[in-house]
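Sample pair:
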Amino acid sequence: MAGFLHELRRRNILRAAALYATSVWALAQGITSLGPSVGAPDWLTRWFLVAAAIGFPFWLAFAWFYELTPQGIRRESEAPPSDAVARATGRRLDVWIIAVLAVAVVLLLTDKFMVRREAAVSTGVAAIAEKSVAVLPLVNESGDPNALYFSDGLSEDLIAALSQFGGLKVIGRNSSFKFRNSTEASNVIAGKLGVAHLLEGSVRREGDMVRIYAELVNAGDGSTMWSQHYDRPYKDLFRLQDDITDAVAGVLKTKLLGGENAVAQNDRPPSGSLDAYNAYLQGKFYLARQNEADFRKAIDAFTTATRIDPRYAEAWADLSNAWSDLGQEFLSGAAAQAAYAQARAAVNTALALSPDLANAHSAKGNLLLSADTNWSGAETEFRRALQLEPSLAAAKGNLGAVLGTLGHPQAAADLTRAALATDPLYAFWSDQLSRFLGMLGRLDEAGQAERKAIELQPKAESYYVQLAVIEILRGDAKAALATAQQGPKGPWQDVGLALARQIGGDRTAADAALKLVIDKYSDGAPYQIAEVYALRKDPNKTFEWLDKAWAARDPGIQFLLYDPLFSRYRSDTRFAAFCRKVGLPAPQGPAN
């Protein structure tokens, strides 16, 4: 027995076993700490330990039969049986054991620190998320699909009322309304919206009576925190809305908000006319649909509301928004100018009636941006809207857009993220964020944001063009072309294909794609044609088409200072001169 123990010591078997054990421990710590960041599966550590256990006896056998000598690894029978050699080998093994132990300890301490940090962050996020609610669209149970505007209007009124509570995160309409008629579980919906509570229910209007059921749900466990049925005469609608808001706020205030009070603010007509309010709700319903026919229906409905109650500032403000959006997106020439004139008259009336109405200042900014290209004036109006109503997500997104136009994509990205925090499923802002990130060179994040926008609104033609531009910035001609081809057929796809083909090797196809865009869209897309020429590295044609874009008051001009396709010309004196001409600041070095 004594001889066997002597052999174990002489052959450094115990040191070899210690080195193996510490190495396995260090590697397991490394896999546990770094595995998740590289996408390693959870089972990797477990099977590594199993493999290490199986390999342990083979390692011991190797240490028994082989010896580490100054001449390298030799079979034990070939190495000189000297104690000096054994001691030298032992010292080397001791150094390795200490080094491996040091690495293992560092990994262990790092892992513990990260766990504590993540736990602290998670605790903070949970505390913030607890003070959050999404109002799902009330189910229209009237049996009349044309009455959908009424149930949607009541839902929006609840969103607006709850948004006035400081410290409470309330999800915007664009995101919460995506779950209309959803069959998903409450916790799934809440997870997608990033909230802890859901307010849901139904509304039925029959003649002169309104029946509403409302329920506040704790999304974590699906339990009902509060619920109530209401049967009231239609003439008491405003009081009914107040009752529901007060009840929900009371529950949230007691459990979450520590007694904070809401600012009294709503979108009701000052006369109290239910007919005016009903027309206003119809206008909001059509305005949200974002197409030409519904814009015109919205204009008719808002006009009716203002005719019934001429002092209805909210209706005047949204009437201005409807005219501005119609002019910018669907009209040109004299027709667009006539629409802008209507928008200007409506917003001036709204501000005269209610100078501190956030929606009116937002509408004024919208008009200045789309009709007048008055960038600094739009910034002033959007900042005022945000000051008056800090919870207004639209004001954050709009201010972000104008800051991007003025050449500050980082500040613009920050504000757009803030808007997305309370309206995370609004595709337009994901697209807007992608554009700012693209200018900042953060292409992976830009791609993620744009793919999110497409997922939310797959029929939005321009989103595929933006995603193709990201691939162009990567220098991947094949991916850019494939992305452009995925978009719906039409003008935007033609523009995307023209852009993508400029970085490919087929010059004939590139020339043909540009010619098609010029032949078909020179009146409506001069800015995009300038982008194509910028990719072709033709500065003369680039500035020629930018001048045409300005002459046509192409809305694309607002993208100029955060459009990476023009980055190569930022130091060109013609670029600075063009910026001065259109009222934009001259670029000062890289975008920031």
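Residues 8 and 14 are 7 Å apart (CA to CA).
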